[in-house]
Design a protein that fits this description.
The protein has about 325 residues and is α/β, with parallel strands linked by helices. Helix content is about 30%, strand content about 25%. The chain contains 10 helices and 15 strands. About 45% of the residues are buried.
Length: about 325
């Protein structure tokens, strides 16, 4: 079936909030594009932690039921262009999807589907937290939490490209720490909160880190803050533990001249120069070989529940995608 025909398609639908078991394969009408939108034949859909929160009903604002998850897709348009699209309305876990033209970019032929999807939410997030939120400067030390995950894998590579002097990867298992070292990290540490700040200081000659990228929340947030050197910056951009972020003592920030910044991609991509331009830079790095990523797991569309279960269980590394 071509994207110009009207019919039905296979899609993953969520009719009630819950865990991975709430993801159900359904036969739905083809979506119809409106003004400023495109209909694409989906060849790959990205899976993110935020998707698991949307399915659970904990993401704000919560989507209206029923809905098709998936905010990032790669595929072909009716006129044959291969595009990558970020669509916060969802609909990506499907054979066809409607996307907003304003957050759609053509993909170079040399960039595969999995790489393109990794460079969308995760790549843009890593780019913005390092350059914008953290204001990483040449020669600084950066600690990257969840360094074997989607954002972390890219942040390890980009931190070096952006001039970091020492790249410290934090991950939960020896296998993930070994992967981070292969990606280019100088040091790989256990990410367990207990003793984390001491391990960072040991790796930095007692000084601590200039920048900590933190996406777990809970005790990991506090440990990352403790690991900062004077004048250090912590950027929080996720809550994978779903434990929340502990209160921050303003006196502690003042005493050590620390800064805490939050990052959320959704409002950023609407700003001029913050969507296509960073993606164009990331594509160029991928094309010339300076940004290479090991493939993450790919699941058939009807195993979306398994993809979510593995992601929540921290059994994945790299970019998780669905293949309709």
């Amino acid at each position: 079936m071509t994207v110009t025909e009207v019919g039905t398609m296979r899609a993953i639908q969520v009719s009630r909030f819950g865990g991975p078991e709430a993801l159900k394969l359904a036969e739905l009408p083809d979506p119809v594009p409106g003004p400023g939108q495109l209909l694409i034949q989906v060849t790959g859909a990205g899976v993110n932690f935020a998707d698991t929160s949307r399915v659970a009903g904990s993401y704000q604002p919560a989507p209206a039921l029923p809905f098709v998850p998936g905010t990032e897709v790669v595929g072909t348009t009716a006129d044959g262009r291969r595009v990558l699209a970020l669509n916060f309305a969802g609909g990506g876990y499907a054979e066809r999807a409607v996307v907003d033209a304003a957050t759609t970019v053509e993909v170079p032929a040399q960039v595969g589907d999995a790489t393109a999807l990794a460079l969308l939410v995760q790549g843009l997030t890593a780019w913005h937290v390092l350059r914008g939120s953290a204001r990483l400067r040449d020669g600084e030390t950066v600690v990257i939490g969840a360094a074997a995950g989607g954002v972390g894998s890219l942040a390890v590579r980009l931190a070096r490209h952006f001039g970091a002097g020492l790249v410290i990867a934090a991950a939960s298992t020896p296998e993930k720490r070994e992967k981070a070292l292969r990606l280019g990290a100088d040091v790989a540490l256990d990410s367990a909160p207990d003793g984390f700040a001491e391990r960072v200081r040991d790796a930095t000659g007692g000084r601590g880190a200039d920048v900590v990228l933190e996406s777990t929340g809970g005790a990991a947030f506090t440990a990352g803050l403790d690991a900062l050197a004077p004048f250090g910056r912590l950027v929080t951009f996720g809550n994978a533990s779903r434990q929340g972020r502990p209160p921050v003592d303003p006196g502690e920030l003042s005493d050590r001249n620390l800064a805490v910044a939050g990052f959320w991609l959704r409002p950023v991509v609407t700003l001029p120069g913050h969507f296509r331009e960073p993606l164009t830079e990331l594509f160029a790095l991928a094309v010339d070989g300076r940004l290479t990523l090991p493939p993450g797991p790919a699941y058939p569309l009807d195993e979306a529940h398994r993809a979510h279960r593995d992601l929540i269980g921290r059994r994945t590394t790299g970019k998780v995608i669905l293949r309709p």
